[in-house]
Amino acid sequence: MQFTRGTITFGGGLVPILDMEATTTSGTTTITITIAGFANDPSVSFSSSPSLPQDEILAQLIFGQSMARLSPLQIAQLADAAAQLAGGRSTSLFEALRSTLGVDDLDISTDETGRKVSAGKYLNDKTYIELQQGGTGQTKAVINLDIGRGVKLKGEAGAEGAGAGIFYEKEY
């Protein structure tokens, strides 16, 4: 994704006004995402060239393929994402599935190696664990630990080996 426009201004208050645009390409479709308005309540819109319906744009953006090729679970995930982008709360089948499984995040995607499934859970406010199953059958466990002051530890282990890293984040 590449930003093609980005302006942040202040209109007399402490809440910034956003006017940002980013584009990406999925196959032969160019997708434009526009974020505009006050930072505490921005509007998000999607457009494409060639022009496509909103659900098709989201399918291309999230899954890189047409709605016609999505599985029922991917369609539920797409509906959930659309509801959240529209400012609503998730009440979809996908949310019910996450709740039934007892996970905080559930992601199903497709790439050149097949389907990838990941499920994650916050163990507490500083620890997040995620299990990933790739299209080639390889499984990986990832743990993120927030140790404070913007410093985070990330570790992962799977059939391909293990790794760890230290990351620093700062919100501006």
What's the SSE blueprint?
Blueprint: E1 2-10, E2 16-26, E3 29-38, E4 43-49, H1 54-63, H2 72-85, H3 93-101, E5 105-111, E6 114-124, E7 127-133, E8 139-148, E9 151-158, E10 161-168
Antiparallel strand pairs: 1-2, 2-3, 3-4, 5-6, 6-7, 7-8, 8-9, 9-10
Helix pairs in contact: 1-2
List segments where confidence is low: pLDDT < 50 over at least 5 consecutive residues: none
Percent range for β-strand residues: over 45%
Mean pLDDT: 79
- Alpha plus pi helix count: 3
Task: Report the radius of gyration as a whole number of Å.
Answer: 19 Å
The major sheet is characterized as: 6 strands, antiparallel
Question: How far is it from the N-terminal to the C-terminal residue, by CA?
Answer: 21 Å
Number of domains: 3
Structure report:
By secondary structure, the protein is α+β, with helices and mostly antiparallel strands. It is built from three helices and ten strands, in the order E-E-E-E-H-H-H-E-E-E-E-E-E. It has three domains: 63 residues, no CATH class; 31 residues, no CATH class; 67 residues. The protein is 19% helix and 51% strand. The strands form two sheets. The chain has a six-stranded antiparallel beta sheet with strand order 5-6-7-8-9-10. A hairpin with a 2-residue loop joins strand 6 and strand 7.
Top keywords for this entry?
19% helix, 172 residues, 3 domains, 3 helices, 51% strand, six-stranded antiparallel beta sheet, four-stranded antiparallel beta sheet, alpha+beta
Write a compact overview of the structure shown.
By secondary structure, the chain is of the alpha+beta class. It has 3 helices and 10 strands; from the N terminus they run E-E-E-E-H-H-H-E-E-E-E-E-E.
